[in-house]
Amino acid sequence: MACRKDKNSANNNNLNPCNQYTPIVFIHGFLASGDTWAGQVMRFTSNGYCADRLYAFDWNTLSQGADNASLLDRFIDSVLQITKASKVNLVGHSAGGGLGYTYLSNNQRAAKVAQYVHIGSNVQSGPAGNGSVPTLNIWSPQDLIVQGGNINGATNVRLDGKDHYEVATCKEAFEAMYEFFTSGKKPKNLDILPENTLSISGKVLTLGENQPRAGADVKIYEIDATTGFRKTTTPLHTLTSDARGQWGPVELNKQTYYEFEVNTRISGDRVVYYYREPFKRSNPLVYLRTLPPANSFVGLLFSGLPNSADQSLLTIFAASQGVSAGRDSLLVNNLHVSTSSLAPPGKNAIAFFLYDGNNNGQSELTPVGLFSQFPFLVGADVYFPTSPRGTISCKLNGRTLNVENKPSASGITIAVFD
């Protein structure tokens, strides 16, 4: 399960009001993972839900031949067994919405679902479950990936100005879901409420394919926010992922910048260094992605990434919305990366892979690699020398993350903006 159980609440549901809510299962979209829902999970816990009422289903959106509906069915059965609930509420975004409708087209499976939320996904002829499952449909006319619209017989919510990813992650979508699941009750909090004690956990899995990496080492370092350098050579915490790729939980401090070093110890896998903004609240969906095997479909996409002592490889991940030219500002060492050629609105750019694609020691900001063939992914020619040791400054819409210019030969550097 993606969301760890709250041990105190799991023992006796009758003593814990937060466990009286119907469990929610979230399905992510194309090329995404369960951490799509991290912000919404924290909003639900900010409004009285127990952590063990919230689950994210990870699936391989590139494996079209797989029986994903059966995989989802087994996942939902396990949630029902853990929670002792009779039904779940189901939420599907984008391709996850297509999977949601496929799943609910079977009457036996539909009987396990109390309510369904369809977000940023294709217009359907009627409510899910062949019309039997109450359906909330959330869409945006500014979603340029999927052309949404109202569904006859469903509760329809139009969110103007939201991109394809943002329509699922924004607080307005949370508000609509919360009211739908609670028969019109308004949430007390639309923002994520800060906590003093933070419990952090998540998964190690492969990018795009979501295959768990068991036995991976996860080392956590506190870093200097102004330089991105580690404050100590010894990690604060060292953890190992289990058979499902899960790691943690571990207690971390609020208002603190951390680096997560991930080493799968699998031959051919590259070490990955994750830099994150400070955590505000306990988060069970901190995902640490590694590159898939080189011989896989997604692995071929990354075959041209540098592995050099002389240049850094930096990926910037926007976890809550796409980056669009004209609306958003993404600067890396004061270079504007959110240009109309790299990040047009129709791209809905989520992840930027930045490196010296032609090895000329210059930053030309031209597209590199095969990334132009996919939505959400951008490859751009940006040169980061590794000598002398220094800082790469990443700024997204006024927020700053500073990372170290590690050689790409030592691993891949990822800056995550929540």
UniProtKB/TrEMBL annotation:
AFL C-terminal domain boundaries: 198-290
GO molecular function: lipase activity
InterPro entries noted in UniProt: AB_hydrolase_fold, AF_1763-like_C, AFL_C, Lipase_EstA/Esterase_EstB
Residue span, AF-1763-like C-terminal domain: 325-400
Pfam families documented for this protein: AF_1763-like_C, Lipase_2, Lipase_C
Biological processes per GO annotation: lipid catabolic process
Protein name: Lipase
